[in-house]
Amino acid sequence: MAPRKRPETQKTPEVVVRPKSKRNRSPWELEPEAKKLCLKGPGPSRRFDSGCLWAGLASLRVPPPCSIVRALHQHKLGTAAWPSLQQGLQQSFLNSLASYRIFQKAAPFDRRATSLAWHPTHPSTLAVGSKGGDILLWNFGIKDKPTFIKGIGAGGSITGLKFNPLNTNQFFTSSMEGTTRLQDFKGNTLRVFASSGTCNFWFCSLDVSVRSRVVVTGDNVGNVILLNMDGRELWNLRMHKKKVTHVALNPCCDWFLATASVDQTVKIWDLRQVRGKSSFLYSLLHRHPVNAAHFSPDGAQLLTTDQKSEIRVYSASQWDCPPSVIPHPHRHFQHLTPIKATWHPRYNLIVVGRYPDPNFKSCTSHELRTIDVFDGSSGKMMYQLYDPESSGIMSLNEFNPMGDTLASVMGYHILIWSQEEAGKRK
């Protein structure tokens, strides 16, 4: 069945971009009752407690700039260890989060936002998809209006969004419309990679490898399809019993594939050895359905987010070892974009939105809907971002490739966080 004709691209008059008010005070001024972060160290089970409501940085021993410069010089001379230098840089970044504020907002959609992707080479450009199939291409560094590509409305939800690494003026989408396709910035469909041809089947996830020149996409009944960049199907297999919520290729070994599903498993595959549904390398069992599985930027770890209260970190070299488990409230709700934890692109940090749950063991009264930052090694809470004027649930949170600007999705809204002084310059 031929894919439905998509409406023409238009410049949206509905996008409202509002600079952050200078009158806003810091979260500490607005929340004097907030308690200091309580941390529990790792126990024998390698579980971590996310701690109390608010996380300050007073306990962090951040090296002054001169120490970092000295460490860089010592590393160049071969007298300083890279891990200690990286740790110092990471702590310096964590210290800078105290000055992060929302400096740009947009509310372009008539349905909630469902996916986002940063442009790989333009640090102030991102794409955001909505439940109605609309796509916003937004360079918030310039005053021009964002480009708005109108979707089909009901049934057109954008479930996956990736810029084309071979041509960054194009992007891939998977959708409930029943297609995985390649489009340009004008909204034209350049190639349809997969089409279900029926409203009973749709695509829920996608990823792209520039090295292997392949596209991988998963659907709502457990199938995963691998195609080359020319659109030729390499294989189509049912790899899970239920919906495939996320597919991810390892950034360093792109023949290494992780697939996450609501069947409560994350499976690891070697694309060179896939012969059938039982040819996975590992099956990582979870206690609840899984929203996402992200490889770390160095490919050495795998971060998974379930649909209730666990974030897990697996070591790529020791899949059989128990994972680090971070208890965290982010339960699933039908009318909420699923919460997915992501990695910082430069540091071993995890970023995830909080959905306070009264049944969660460390829940406090009047708990805020923050963006939580965890250390990927220890599982400790390092910081919580919060803005009293944007107090909804932050379902999606991703740093740009430079690692200095954070984009968040909150219902219908897109929020851009940056350091206060940097925000004023943009």
UniProtKB/TrEMBL annotation:
It holds the Pfam family WD40. It comes from the Eukaryota. Residues 1-11 have a biased composition (Basic and acidic residues). One of its GO terms (molecular function) is ubiquitin-protein transferase activity. It comes from Phocoena sinus. Keywords: Acetylation, Chromosome, DNA damage, DNA repair, DNA-binding, Nucleus, Phosphoprotein, Repeat, Ubl conjugation, Ubl conjugation pathway, WD repeat. Residues 1-29 are annotated as: Disordered. The gene is DDB2. WD repeats lie at residues 237-279. GO terms for biological process: nucleotide-excision repair; protein autoubiquitination; protein polyubiquitination; pyrimidine dimer repair; UV-damage excision repair. This is DNA damage-binding protein 2. SMART domains: WD40. Belongs to the WD repeat DDB2/WDR76 family. GO terms for cellular component: cell junction; Cul4A-RING E3 ubiquitin ligase complex; Cul4B-RING E3 ubiquitin ligase complex; nucleoplasm; site of DNA damage. Pathway: Protein modification; protein ubiquitination. It is found in: Chromosome; Nucleus.
